[in-house]
Design brief:
single chain, mainly alpha, about 35% helix, elongated
Length: about 80
């Protein structure tokens, strides 16, 4: 399956917030979990990324696990509100 890396350019922006909206089954959840694993202070993910090409980038360690990350699961909130 080809990957569209152009969408990752948004991460290089100075924007304070990122909203990822795509149709169902487009891999939004797995992408969000991967971003949380990389950026979140709440994760220790050095081993997770150590064998990937990103670990060879000069800025790899600079940004890894350095930020407070909030991940919202809108589908979960929607299903809870229906009950």
């Amino acid at each position: 399956m080809p990957t569209d890396c152009s969408a990752l350019r948004v991460l290089e922006s100075e924007s304070k917030y990122v909203c990822v909206s795509r149709p169902r089954r487009f891999g939004k959840s797995i992408a969000a979990k991967m971003l949380v694993a990389y950026y979140s202070k709440g994760c220790d993910s050095k081993d997770l990324f150590k064998n990937l090409s990103i670990s060879k980038q000069p800025s790899f360690a600079k940004y890894m696990n350095q930020y407070d990350v909030i991940r919202l699961d809108i589908q979960w909130m929607y299903s809870v509100s229906e009950n």
